[in-house]
Amino acid sequence: MHPETLMAPPRTWEELRADVQARTDRQVYPMTGMRSEDVRGILSHIGRLDRDAWGRAWSAMARAWIARGEPLEARDPEGAGEAYRMAWRYASFGGWPIAISPAKKASYQLSLEAFRRFGTLQAQPIETVTLSVPSTGPDADITVYLQFPAGRRPVPVLISIGGLDSYKEYVAERYGPVYLRSGLGYVAADAPHTGEACVDADERGERIYTAIIDDLRTRTEVDPARIGVQGVSLGGYWATKVAFAEPARLTLAVNWAGLLDAAWSPDQLRRALGSREYLFDLPQALCTVWGYETPEALVAGQSRMSIVRQGLVGRPTPRMLVVNGLHDSLVPAEDSLLLLQSGTPKSAWLNPGGIHLGRSSEWNDERIMREVIRPWIVQTMEQ
């Protein structure tokens, strides 16, 4: 099979520029929170499909926002924090979806610096924590974010896992405030071999989250009887895997459009790689995270990650919520039904008109989180 039969033709520069600007103007992922005028200026300095030119242009805007924030730290920490958050948004997109060139790697590192400046200026600071994860070789380190709400202790805590390209910073920035307003602490974590999770994405990648549970149970701020996990897209896969691995130590799990079985099949991977729903560089991102040299090797070998092939289907889980859209082109609806039709009884919200994550014209990510996922988590934690 030739590469061209697996992958959609890449967008031209003009097509990509128009799509990025349009998504910014509509404020849809992955452009949420960015300013239309800033993005227009950034794109005007790129002019071609070149990963390093991309990384340099987005980094330049991020540095401009950092320069705005620094003089504000002493007299207006909230304003400084907002400037650093804008810097993080631009620098992180300079490394999106995967940092595989020198300038994109530099942009990703700049995004970490900006986000941590933002985190330290919050009313409840976002703590950066490094943990060691047992591995087949030398133990590997992961970095996560930890934030608790003000008020009473101990609190329930949610381990919230990012996706293929929405790392823990995105989780903390977009979902963290929802958790805090609900009285939940949270750990924002990367999926294996993404962001700062330096652990192989193999059949035992969920050991990251077992290590996080171990750490949380030692903290006096945490109610050890109320620890849950939520994962989005690729993170939904790992949330489901750790739910199977830790049914006794987890109170709940949320699979938000996680790939489980059919999504890993050769036919579905071919369809995903041939879709233009994803903005750009999906084959490169998938191959980098999963350790394949070519898309052909990915398609041939990735069914090893199926929860059916791993013998997990039907095993006990904590209480679980399954969320997605029935028209998701990346994660087929049968993956959601697989969970619902086996093992411990589960709850579900499947948007009949929804695409990936359950998104539709009526339901964006924020509304799904606010009106579907958050109430279920709060109610289940209280029970």
Strand runs, count: 8
What is the level 1 CATH name of the largest domain? Answer: Alpha Beta
Q: What percentage of amino acids are in beta strands? A: 5-15%
**Going across the major beta sheet, what is the strand order?**
1-2-4-3-5-6-7-8
Residues in helix, %? 40-55%
Q: What spatial form do the alpha-carbon principal axes imply?
A: globular
Number of domains: 2
- Alpha-carbon distance between the two ends: 52 Å
Low-pLDDT regions:
none
User: What is the residue-averaged pLDDT?
Assistant: 95
CATH homologous superfamily label of the largest domain: Alpha/Beta hydrolase fold, catalytic domain
How many distinct helices? 15
**Largest sheet, described in full?**
8 strands, mixed
Radius of gyration of CA atoms, rounded to a whole number: 20 Å
Per CATH, the architecture of the largest domain is: 3-Layer(aba) Sandwich
Order of helices and strands: HHHHHHEEEHHEHEHEHHHEHEH
Task: Note the main attributes of this structure.
single chain, 383 residues, alpha/beta, de novo design (two linked rop proteins), Rossmann fold, 8-stranded mixed β-sheet, 14% strand
Written description of the protein model:
With 383 residues, the protein is of the alpha/beta class. It is built from 15 helices and 8 strands. The protein is globular, with a radius of gyration of 20 Å. The mean pLDDT is 95.
Question: How is the topology of this model organized?
Answer:
Layout: H1 3-6, H2 13-26, H3 36-44, H4 51-69, H5 77-94, H6 102-120, E1 127-133, E2 140-147, E3 155-161, H7 168-174, H8 176-181, E4 185-189, H9 207-216, E5 222-232, H10 234-245, E6 252-256, H11 266-273, H12 282-290, H13 295-301, E7 319-325, H14 333-340, E8 347-351, H15 365-382
Parallel strand pairs: 3-4, 3-5, 5-6, 6-7, 7-8
Antiparallel strand pairs: 1-2, 2-4
Helix pairs in contact: 2-3, 4-5, 4-6, 5-6, 11-13
